Queue: 2 jobs
Job 1
Amino acid sequence: MNELIECILNEIERKIQCVRMNFESETWRATVPSEQGWYLIKTNAPIEVLRGVGSPPEKRKAHINIPETVNETLKLQGIAITQRRNDDYVVYNGEAKNLKARAKEHERGHAKTYCLGLSNYEILRNYNWTFCYVAASRCEVLQNGDKLLRLAVEQAWRVRNGWPVLCKK
């Protein structure tokens, strides 16, 4: 792997911060900066629960179709990240121009943005959801968070750690 990308991935692992998502209150997002960077979402929701949530609400056509995406990702045998026992596992990772806005989209949804919209699924409220992030400004290796490099780091993370079940191929 490219030396710069490897260095950034190592720095992200050292500096990542996590906050428990709360579908009943917006206060959990207070610590998430309105900056560019990288993030991942973890849960203890079993894959079978994710497969059974149904399609996104009709008004949210841009949302990720969770069951369809899980089924497609699981075809990547040996590459897809799956749950061990009842532990939390990474189901999504990405890069964002604005981490706080992206956190809100994945929680609440957005009519025109490709996102999870987790709070739209009542059954998912029964499980733990964690939003972990690192702002590019906190990285000594790369502070400007250039979009192309953010994308490269996002993909390199998947090469290193596996493919999250809610990420499209």
Note: The chain has one domain: 3-161.
Job 2
Amino acid sequence: MLKNSNKMKIIDKLNLPGWQVEIPDCGRNDLPEFFKDMGFSVGAEIGVERGEFAEIICRSGLKLYAVDPWQYYDDYVVRYPQKRLDGFYEGAKKRLSPYDCTIVRKTSMDAVKDFDDNSLDFVYIDGNHSFKYVVEDIWEWSKKVKKGGVISGHDYYNRDQLHVCDVKYVLDGYTRAAKLDKWFILNKKYGSRTDKARSWFWIK
């Protein structure tokens, strides 16, 4: 659905009603081509883990800053041991080495200080999904995105018995408080199953 877009025309052509707009038959793997069609060249992914989505972004020809501490800490919601996180880091380095990708092994709030305001075309937020960290990531990384750029991220849902995730809580409140004119949720189906971990974005 986002492919073969032309700047903002893809949004206009959809002409979908409402303030919170679901884009049908579209998943996060479509976002890099959308970014390219918007004329973007550089962005950041916050929360990289194994580097799988980062590689998809890089394959499209975009310059990427891949930000992740790969470090255990008390509020780390997945609770991987440090040895496994080190393995993820080494794997991500190898996976992303052929591309124009700068790996930033820092916490999100340490890394964000290294970027000038209005210096990025897009940011994709997929770090710690608990409330405090989602709020911080959206608030601070949004400053780094240029006007006309995209703030986006993963996992638009709320916590369940298996996952700590407050992304939907935060976005529902943040987008109202920020008085956004419109924002978008990607709604991809895989067979009869709708993707639970939906991506989202808005244009700054």
Note: The domain at 15-203 is CATH 3.40.50.150 (Rossmann fold).
